[in-house]
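User: Hi! I'm working on a homework problem where we have to compare a predicted structure to a textbook description. Could you give me the structure for the chain below?
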Amino acid sequence: MNDHWWMFDRLLNIDESILLTINGLHTSVLDSVMWYISGKLTWIPFYVSLLICLICNISIKRLLIYIVALVLCIYFADQICASVIRPIVGRLRPSNIDNYISPMIHLVNGYRGGSYSFPSCHAANTFALAAYMSCILKRSYQTWLFFIWAALVSCSRIYLGVHYPSDILVGAMFGLFSGGLFYWLGTMSGKAIYPSPGMPVTIARPDVTRMGNMLPAVAFGGTLVVFLILALF
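Assistant: Happy to help. Predicted structure tokens:
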């Protein structure tokens, strides 16, 4: 039993060390960039590009089913983490003023977040979206893009000092599960409602589909460039 507690304590120490290392990398430019990356509304162009990508790749009949499944997927991941797991675990955020580690945390714009940190809703939501979109589009280069985006947003939460790495890890794992689950539910629902095998895959022309598939990469790169410009000036 003592060995188990020693191992658990060791893991917590590693968790805190990684947090303090990443949080300690702060510069004025990185503070601004990570602040923008962590924001939800700042990624609206990227979200719109994902919607356009879906429209270009899914038949009009099944499109609404997949969009509803995606919305439910994000809601499920977010609410289970925020409303069920967090109150049960009750782990204080590193930035929480009642946490003994908070004096060692560099805050950005005075941001401390809510009370609890485990697991990370940002990680759960972004990895759920990444997993869901990857299951639908099944293209390796887009899969890399989605998961790089999710990892970047998640790491920004550690940088801001509002999450431990383990919060991110568990949140990401739950997000992957949620994305896969709701993709399966959406697919099963689509097949049940529209079972016709002869239904066209998409209403878009091939050239329009190719352009739609490029949009997420353009939106992702463009948004990061905007973040950097805003941080510098």
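For your comparison, note the following. Helices lie at 2-23, 28-38, 44-57, 60-89, 121-137, 140-159, 165-193, 206-232. The chain has a mean pLDDT of 89. Good luck with the assignment!
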